Amino acid sequence: MARTHDEDLFQSSTMTFGEHLEELRSCLIRASIGLLIGVVIGFLLGRDVVHLIEQPLRRALGDYYISQSQRVVEEWQPRTPDSAGIPYTVEEMTDAVTRRGMSFEVREMHVDRLGRSADEVGSTEGTFPLDTLVPVVLWQPLERDSRVTITTLSAQEAFAIYVKAAIVVGVVLSSPWIFYQLWSFVAAGLYPHEKRYVHVFLPFSTGLFLAGVALAFFFVFDFVLAYLLAFNEWLGLDPDPRITEWLSFVLLLPIGFGIGFQLPLVMLFMERIGVFDASAYASQWRTAVVGIFVVSAILTPADPYSMLFLAVPLCLLYFGGYALCRWLPRPTEPERQLATKANQ
Fold it and tell me: Is residue 325 situated within a structural domain?
């Protein structure tokens, strides 16, 4: 059963409330030092990290504009039966894009007037000769295409990007140490026979955090960007993303996934200290699922894909946390006393 409201949360702990606060302060200081060291390393790697963070967005923008250009090629119709068509087949252009890393734009021009003045052309119609326009394909390497370039709008914005990238690197690199300090704080108030769980929780916690970050960066970003850019295309709007906005998105989503993936361990910890028990988790699973979807909608951008990619794994992790509570039941008070005497 979960603890009653008149129970002291620390009555079964080996430490007083004041000692818990002192231990928490020490753990936070050590965790902050580890984070600071991680951020310093992040400053050394910041430039490479910024380029790495840009890749999903550049890739999505490249696919977006190439798809638009290919659609133009497939739908191109000469203005008159005698007009010239595009001087490439669809197969040639697809090969250039997929295997050669090229991008292209289709423009029109009057080829017969190149390098000639109006007097030399001798046109006397007085109207623009629309029917004699010839389609021209302009090629360039994809990485040099200005449409896939991510822009900054102020001189100081690049420095702010560099600092944010260093912070992201610092959080990821120092996450094992930070989780070690958090679980050390938890272990300080446990009995000797309970402290062994910390050695299991620490790698589990770190692994879940890194799994959440990896899921967001290597899997979720592509789906989310494809959806958002498809929505731009549906509205007929060309995206012009700023690196600051993209980096804020990158900072929020992976960290949110990593923290959210701690759910099973949080559930097990709450069960261990008597706030909830396994039966409460089982009876309230519908409420928990609704809450997970609400929190996922808050932590992710305004699109259904990122919300679902966070909410669905969290629902599975919720039931995984329930299974942990069932398989690792909380020891009774007599069992605690016997274990404590055995370890003295």
Answer: yes
Closest among 175, 164, 165 to 258, alpha carbons compared? 175
Q: Are 106 and 137 in contact (CB under 8 A)?
A: yes
Rounded to whole angstroms, how far apart are CA atoms 76 and 85? 8
Q: What is the mean pLDDT of the chain?
A: 78
Q: What is the largest CA-CA distance in the chain?
A: 109
The predicted-structure confidence for 34-60, as pLDDT tens digits, reads as follows: 999 999 998 998 888 888 878 888 888
User: Total domain count for the chain?
Assistant: 2
User: Using CA atoms, how far apart are residues 236 and 2, in angstroms rounded to an integer?
Assistant: 55
- 236: which residues sit within 8 A by CB, 6+ positions away? none
pTM: 0.63
Render pLDDT for 264-314 as a digit per residue (tens, 0 to 9): 888 887 787 677 888 888 888 999 999 999 888 877 766 777 788 888 989
CA distance 342 to 344: 6
Closest CA to 283 of 332, 328, 325, 333: 325
- Within a domain: 6: no
Tokens of 38: 């991680």
Note down the domain range covering 307.
17-60+150-343
Who contacts 203 (Cβ-Cβ below 8 Å, separation ≥6)? none
Q: Write down the H helix ranges in 76-132.
A: 90-98, 118-121
35 and 75, same domain (yes or no)? no
Q: How confident is the model at residue 334 (pLDDT cuts 50, 70, 90)?
A: low
Burial zone of 64 (CB within 10 Å; 0-12 exposed, 13-18 middle, 19+ buried)? buried
| CA pair distance 159, 335, nearest whole angstrom | 57
Residue 175 sits in the same domain as residue 287: yes
Q: Under a CB-based contact definition with an 8 Å cutoff, are residues 13 and 20 in contact?
A: yes
Helix (H) or strand (E) run with residue 342 in it: helix 333-343
Q: What is the pLDDT of residues 69-98, one digit of tens each?
A: 777 777 778 777 777 788 888 788 888 887
